[in-house]
Amino acid sequence: MLKFIQSYQFIQSYRFIQNNREGTALLAILALFALLGVIDRNYFNLQTFTMIFSSAQILILLAIGATMVMLTRNIDVSVGSITGLCAVTVGMALNAGFGLALSCLFALLVGMVAGFFNGILVTWLRIPAIVATLGTLGLYRGLMLLLTGGKWIEGLPADLKSLSTPILFSISPIGWLIMLLIVSMALLLGKTAFGRSFYATGDNLQGARQLGIRTDSIRIFAFSMNGVMAALAGIVFASQIGFIPNQTGSGLEMKAIAACVLGGISLLGGTGTIIGAILGAYLLTQIDSVLVLLRLPAWWNDFIAGLVLLAVLVFDGRLRCAVERNIRQQKYARFTARPAVSDKSTVSDKKVKPNNNKAPSSKSFTKKEAAR
Question: What is the pTM (predicted TM-score) of this model?
Fold first, then answer.
């Protein structure tokens, strides 16, 4: 009985964590803020919050795109290369004399085409998403290096840098655009039938098809939007840095996936919210700021991101296995349980009455038959 109570409490606590991943991530952010406020009293203020938000903008955009793909039970590891390719596109267009709006439009089109191509590989050619995007990761990275000749793009105009200049409440124009985008995507996925199609596709692909959902179109749209978000991330990167290195976007795909998983997006599809992914991205960026505050080398960032991703996956996987095993045991308990005896003394005291109606032996039966 005690084991049953403990297992029930374990399942309830696990379900609470699973159903409140956003709250868990928010509590982690607040706890980290409080800890850093104790270490450095100047850390806990509005300026620090906006500074971390500005640093998290690239990862937030990538997390939005990765959420749409992961909800459909797919994964895209080429977003870092798409980010670099789109950053190079906007930089080369600006240096060629095109206007800021037209250059950004070129970058968005490149990102959308790259994401659309990933979706075609996955849906029409039936290539597993991890394999297809691993191939396009190298393809887009190589195309980026071919366009630049392996050189950096410098001398970007001031118009591009103005996109990341704070204007209102210490938030830049691109920051306000990202907040508007977060609200729009959260409403799209959470409040519309089209948004629920992403959850249905990832949760049960065949069932979604039987309901009339065009699952191939949903997945292609998810990959295309992922490319658009990566293009926006490339534009933000170029506006914040002011130049474009030849390794722009390297390693961002792992951080985007880690942010989504940390915020409650399931790798098995059909579970999670945009808000959770945003909080996961903010938490990872906050951890990076902690490393800067502790004066640790920059290469610790990737190590911490990988460690967080691995820890969350292991923790989530172990809990899922434990819950499924417990549910299975409860389901089949009535088939394996032994029948209980209410009163053993009554059963033992009963005497078996001898049966006087003995069946005739074979010999007597034969004699009677012979007499007949």
Answer: 0.81
